[in-house]
Predict the 3D structure of the following.
Amino acid sequence: MGFDTVAGTDIQYGLISFDADGNERPEPTGLMTDALINKATAEAITNVFFFCHGWMGDIPSACGQYERWLTAFMGSSQDRQAASSTFANFRPLLIGLHWPSLPFGDEELRSGGFGAQDGPPPPDVVLQAYLQRLGDRPEIRGPLTTIIEEARHNAAPDELPPHVRQAYLDLNDALGLKSEGVGASPDADRDEFDPQVAFDAANDQSASFAGFNIGGLLGPLRQLSYWTMKKRARTVGEGGMHTFLKRLQSATAATDTRPQTRVHLMGHSFGTIVVSSMIGGPGAQGVLPRPVDSVVLVQGAVSLWSYAPDIPFHQAGPGYFARLVADKKIRGPLVTTRSKYDDAVGVFYPLASRFGGSATFGGFPEFGGMGTYGIQGADDISRDTGMLAADAAYAFEPARIYNLDGSQYICHKVGPSGAHSDISGGEVAHAIWAAALASAH
């Protein structure tokens, strides 16, 4: 917590921590956001690099992820030398964010029923895990208990019992989850929630998760948890992190003695929602003191149409984050990565969104993730290209969108998420550096 140093290195970064309600957790010495702003101004920081994880449940997991990312990022001597040559008096500040964001754990997807050897944890453990993730309130505990108690004796029915179906509907309402179509906010861009359809779809897709069981009676619960984490990502981004970004930019504006500090944002998975919401603010209509300098969205668990000015389905209108481009809130490149080996985005995203089927347009589905398709439907999209080797030169330009096919490098599958988190290589780090360097033009 606070300022930390990556083991065995001189790489220091600051860690901001938020709780499940979207509130910053204070450090013993005060708020970390205050300390970071003070550091940025007192030490004449030239470039802030902000990183946001996605699918992480606790602080140790987040720290482990940041250590791997930052080791690769700061370990690129060629890119660091280029930054020193590009940015006068180059002095970076590295920042990470932790927010509770794990929709379900791999241990819940093991084959077998409750209590089976090497199977999933017992019902009381599952109940406590979901209460911690979703919130321990009576309106949540009640239907959640009904669902998990039924799963104790009837884990894989042919169809949902009526009382379980109603419990799922009640839980969906208690979580405040909406279904407003592809042009809605990231936590509401889905079809109408039907527990039976969600149950059937999860059972049909279980084979795609390398032997892990995403179906059964708890299949719709995992989907609701997934959407809750997307809602939490938007809450954290539009709230406290948007405020932090505005304060940071105001505190590091140009003066007579120093140029303004550049701010570069990177988000992974659900973290792409946090980062996009940081820029957009409430309802994606907030105002920043100045544009951010570069943005990289790595294996985004957010709609491929979310930045489109006019989504080509059902008169859906603009994507939720379309104003970020229209209002020129990103001065430098906006870069995405995608991989055909990412099962979390390639399989689970459309499963959790498309309860009643999906249309297509130009070869792209109505409901699909950025980590599979990149950004589509937006203006200023440069030709999609492959991710380059860590020593190759990109030709990024400011105010352009680049979709990088990272399948060559984001390819090592682990667990049901596939290669979703295989992003700690030098190639991804190099793309982040390249976006930042292009912002100087």
